[in-house]
Amino acid sequence: MTKDRLRIGIVGANGENDRWGAKAHVPAALSIDEVELVAVATSHEESAKIAQQRSGARLAFSNYHELVKSSEVDLVTISVRVAMHYPIVMEAIAAKKHIFCEWPLALDSSQASKMLHSAKVSGIGHAIGTQSRFSPGLMYLKQLVENGAIGEPLMFNMTHHLGTMPSMPSHRWWLLRKDEGGGVTLVTTGHAIDIARWILGDVKAVCGKAATFVKEVQFKDKLAELPEDEFNKVSAFDSICFAVEMESGVLGVASTSIVCKGWGGFRLEIQGTEGRLIAETPDMIQFSNARLWMASGRGGYRPTELKELTVPTEFTNVHTLSDTSMGFHIAQELRAFVNSIRNGERDFSPGFKEGLDLHRIIEAIIRSSDTGSWENV
């Protein structure tokens, strides 16, 4: 490892610019001076070379095995389909590499538990990509709640409504399949509930119902070459409505979906004893800027005007990348993670422990959908 900069290798830095690795992980790694992007890996030699040209990386690999074993790489970031996270992470741990793995950490809590245990034994630094925790607006929201801006939190209402499934490109085929970690369950629901528990505390119990409203999808980049009646079957859930009880006693209701025409983005409203706070993003919470509003209720129970808040600049730590970039939140988290490694810390948050806990919350929601009752996490 170099003394001053960690050398990063990105698994999933696909040569196509419409992939998450190319749109988010590559610009994030290039935007902070604590790291050097030295290697990229895709699943084909041609796409690896294109990714190398676009990123400026010195090394390119057509498989992840060579990248994680390379002596030129100190830290591996992983941005591929969910089913591949477990084997890549476990191989990177065996190679003693620090790891930044996109959320979802794994397909389920069983895999996540093994990943956490192996990372602890190995002593490597590990982080998960619940990068919304590094959104300046949401960081400010958390500070306001902790500082008592609305008194004691009582309850919340949260929505994360997207339209990604009906307009899906064919390379995201795995999002249709339950066995691949697709649908609304892990990605869309996971990112949303992570913000709620980060701000309001651990989740105690949940009760909800999951559904698949859209049974078939026609990939948007195949419309010209497929017959009108040729569709792809959907096995994953596309919408969930659920109630939440926090360990603190805070109660909440939430809905998440990836089949909303017109979309809706993310919205979190927190009611407290002395007022309310609202956070909204126009698109996926993972990369959209959050705007905040607050209404003080200290004068009694009469309605008070919502006022938009200005997010302090102190919550922006990356200034070399536009805050409208899909890589901005990742860059903010990556900078914090790298600095924790350089300081000798091995308990970075959000790490694999937070990932395991998040998997358990989501699995409790799905159990509740099956049993029709409240389920403890």
Structural class: alpha/beta
Largest sheet: 9 strands, mixed
Radius of gyration, CA atoms, in whole angstroms:
21 Å
What's the CATH topology name of the largest domain?
Dihydrodipicolinate Reductase, domain 2
Provide the CATH architecture of the largest domain: 2-Layer Sandwich
Number of helices in the DSSP assignment: 9
CATH homologous superfamily annotation of the largest domain: Dihydrodipicolinate Reductase, domain 2
What is the strand arrangement across the widest sheet? 16-15-14-13-7-12-11-8-17
Distance between the first and last residues' Cα: 40 Å
**Total tally of structural domains:** 2
- Spans with pLDDT under 50 lasting ≥5 residues? 223-227
Name of the CATH class of the largest domain: Alpha Beta
Would you report the number of β strands?
17
Strand content: 15-25%
Topology order in helix (H) and strand (E) letters: EHEHEHEHEHEHEHEEEEEEEEEHHE
Overall 3D form? globular
Nearest-integer average pLDDT: 93
Fraction of residues in helix: 25-40%
